[in-house]
Every structure is written in structure tokens, then in C-alpha cells.
Specification:
single chain; about 160 residues; YbaK protein; globular
């Protein structure tokens, strides 16, 4: 006689973020927020400037592995700068389902904290020295964190990897 044993699911969404932050000794404040139609509206709802919202973007190398790029509001990835930094000729943005498979988070919620894999992290220099809001693993939430503590905890390479939008 066999018994079906179901695995207990691990934490999901913001619970994964909180657990990962605790494991890293990182102080993270997760706040609920309504949906926004623009960066400016999201910043206003959070009570911060747009550059304080940091997108976590998943990029894919030609070799098939991934990396995270932390991009502050009002800026975009400079693909040429990032390729030069990485010493590669090709990078791409995976589709939503591939990004989910690589991180365990849906677009708009992606964060380094609690990701399914510990991909390398590259952060733009303009993030340093601020308190920032990043994805919290679930829609309708943001995670506030001291950028310097966050970058150190996740082992980010800090470099000029963005341009103004």
C-alpha cells in the first residue's frame, strides 16, 4: 500500500521576501499599496520620489543563465554598458513565464530576496545611499529597505548600468 505524501509548500510571495531578509539580517518594511498607472503615481502612493522605486529586472545571458539588474525609477538599462561590464555580446529580456520560472515571482513583484535561484545582482550606482522600495514578491505590496544594506546583503556589483529614460 502506498501513501500519497504531499510536500508542505514553502512560503510564498511576501512571506518568502520576509524570510530571506531575516536570513540575511536585513531590515525590510513591507507595505501594502494600491495599484498605480505610472511610476509617478506609484511614488506618490508610497510617499517617495520616483527614483526611490527600484525595479528588479531579470536579464538572460546567451549561455542561458540569468542575472538581476536593479534599475531606479526614471532610468532604463543601458544594454551596451551592461554587456561591456559582463563581457558578453548578447543579453535579452525573458518573457513573463520564463522570468517567473527563473525567480518564482511574477513581473511587477520580482525581487532578489527569496528568488528561486541566487542569480548575480547588478545595481546602478544611482541607488547607493538611499532608502528604496523594491518588489515584495506579491502584487499590491512594496518592500522598503536601506539600499546600501540591501546591496551588500545580496552581493550586488555596483556599476553604471543605466541611462535616463
Amino acid at each position: 500500500m502506498t501513501t500519497n505524501v504531499q510536500e508542505t509548500p514553502g512560503p510564498i510571495g511576501r512571506e518568502r521576501v520576509e524570510q530571506a531578509a531575516r536570513e540575511l539580517g536585513l531590515d525590510v518594511e513591507i507595505v501594502e499599496r494600491p495599484a498605480a498607472n505610472s511610476l509617478e503615481e506609484a511614488a506618490e502612493l508610497l510617499g517617495i520620489e520616483p527614483f526611490g522605486i527600484v525595479k528588479t529586472i531579470v536579464a538572460k545571458r546567451h549561455s542561458g543563465d540569468y542575472l538581476f539588474v536593479l534599475v531606479p525609477g526614471g532610468r532604463k538599462i543601458s544594454w551596451s554598458k551592461l554587456r561591456t561590464l559582463l563581457g558578453v555580446n548578447k543579453l535579452s529580456l525573458p518573457d513573463a513565464s520564463t522570468a517567473f520560472a527563473a525567480t518564482g515571482y511574477e513581473r511587477g513583484t520580482i525581487t532578489v530576496l527569496g528568488s528561486e535561484q541566487a542569480w548575480p545582482v547588478y545595481a546602478d550606482t544611482t541607488i547607493v545611499g538611499r532608502r528604496i522600495a523594491v518588489g515584495a514578491g506579491e502584487h499590491g505590496y512594496s518592500a522598503f529597505v536601506d539600499a546600501d544594506d540591501y546591496l551588500e546583503a545580496v552581493g550586488a556589483v555596483i556599476a553604471d548600468v543605466t541611462d535616463p529614460e
